[in-house]
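Shipment paperwork, digital attachment
Item: protein structure file
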Amino acid sequence: MSLAIFGIGASRLAFSTSTRLLATYTYTRPHHSILPNRGFSSSSPRPASEAPIPPSSPELHARLQNTTLAKKLQQSPEALQAIRDFIDVLQREGLDVSSGKPPSAMQLMRLGLKKDVRDGMARVTTAMQNAGVDPTDKNMMAEIMAAMKK
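Attachment content:
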């Protein structure tokens, strides 16, 4: 059966088919979109910001002094000394603890690699456990957070 019966010559059919296939396989999308660049929401974008640091005030200090953690630490001079020593180690390593600004993730990683920082943290952990402070106690953390929010 010949293709001429359908009114299409064989060479014309081969040419149109190959052209269509070639166009399909060689077409590449442009690097930029023709459509306008639209966001996913209609609200205005907000830049990222850090959580606000609570102000250092006498009222905040008094509220924190009345927490269970503070009372346990006041009864343990060894724990308080371990904390002071750890703060000294952090300051020697270049961390500004008086600014109230938390260290970056990169600073924390660098500090974690230093032996004296790891030893100081181990001493603080041991001293706090000896004082009866459990850092994983959710009630204690909730009490501290509530004192800071007031």
